[in-house]
Amino acid sequence: MNKDLQILVDKGEMLPLMEEFYTIQGEGFHKGTAAYFIRIGGCDVGCHWCDVKESWNADLHPPTEVYKIVENAKKHSDTIVVTGGEPLTWDMSILTNALKAEGLQIHIETSGAYKLTGIWDWICLSPKKMKLPTLEVYEKANELKMIIYNKDDFRFAEDQAAMVNKDCILYMQPEWSKRDKVIPEIVDYVMKNPKWKVSLQTHKYLNIP
């Protein structure tokens, strides 16, 4: 990326756009809701089981003007989901201000590893062991989505649940490649610890993006 483009990306006037698409939210509190997804490239959290590793290298995704992203988004849905990658790698203020000016509901899916920027109607926090969330995002998260890959993830989930605000909704979600093994374990855990709910990647069962 040349220097001039990098300055605009660093300001949040342009963002490395990996993809954008209209589909059904498959996970968490808003599952089943039609939403327009904006996937921003760039992530150094490095989850080995990540199912969108192609999002990690921001240089592979073209810097796109925020106004173009907003023009596309407003044509499709009143609910916008900003995801990644890790969208908080970048300053989300300009994008979310522009989406809000169009009267749209804006959700974010984030690991919370970087400073919380932007205006959000819903924050889905999915912490990762490699880079823990900031205190601010713990305080503001609407839902906590913990990915369960192995038994230690139950311990980690409880550690993270102790950090979020009292109104945050708690979810455990099986890592897709391990779902046959961990779903029975999650079901058993949630039945014994009903403060938790089960989240599934229903869009994968529906065979949609």
TrEMBL record:
S-adenosyl-L-methionine binds at residues 49-51, 85, 126-128. Binds 1 [4Fe-4S] cluster. The cluster is coordinated with 3 cysteines and an exchangeable S-adenosyl-L-methionine. Binds 1 S-adenosyl-L-methionine per subunit. Its EC number is 4.3.99.3. Its cofactor is [4Fe-4S] cluster; S-adenosyl-L-methionine; Mg(2+). Pfam families: Radical_SAM. GO terms for molecular function: 4 iron, 4 sulfur cluster binding; carbon-nitrogen lyase activity; magnesium ion binding; S-adenosyl-L-methionine binding. [4Fe-4S] cluster binds at residues 43, 47, 50. One of its GO terms (biological process) is tRNA queuosine(34) biosynthetic process. Pathway: Purine metabolism; 7-cyano-7-deazaguanine biosynthesis. Keywords: 4Fe-4S, Iron, Iron-sulfur, Lyase, Magnesium, Metal-binding, Queuosine biosynthesis, S-adenosyl-L-methionine. Homodimer. Catalyzes the complex heterocyclic radical-mediated conversion of 6-carboxy-5,6,7,8-tetrahydropterin (CPH4) to 7-carboxy-7-deazaguanine (CDG), a step common to the biosynthetic pathways of all 7-deazapurine-containing compounds. Belongs to the radical SAM superfamily. 7-carboxy-7-deazaguanine synthase family. This is 7-carboxy-7-deazaguanine synthase. It comes from Confluentibacter flavum. The gene is queE.
